[in-house]
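Example 3.2
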Amino acid sequence: MTSPMYTHSVPVFRQLLTALKAMLAQADAHAAAKSIEPDALLQARLYPDMFQLVKQVQIAADFSRGISARLAGIEVPAYEGKEKSFADLDALLARTLEFLDSVKSAQFEGSETKEIVLRPGTPKEKKLSGQAYLANYGLPQFFFHVTTAYNLLRHNGLSIGKRDYMGAY
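Structure, written as tokens:
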């Protein structure tokens, strides 16, 4: 039997990161076709205090790996976060999808009651059950950053819609 914790995380991450990968490829092609400097899209923000597109993608990838690893009880893979181009982001998402493919449902057994500690040893330390971590923290964070990346691309002229955001399901 497949763990519900796995079912509600890894396949969701795979679906949306695969869709995000496709949207970024469209953005790269759009920039080339319209003679737009790629950094105009990669560094785009909706407001000055927001992270730019490249950082939104990095954070979405980070959350998918971190959530999956913590719930599976394995080490969270650390990536440097030095992506600067569409090709770099494509490679980041490809590595992230490979990692997600390596995580198996059986590793998630019992993870709903596992204690997850956020920001350990700091004044902001918070302890959550695996269930609360996934449902109330991890998934909302992941969706926020994927949605913001989508919105940045759409706002900057990319002809994408809900089907692009959702990807194949």
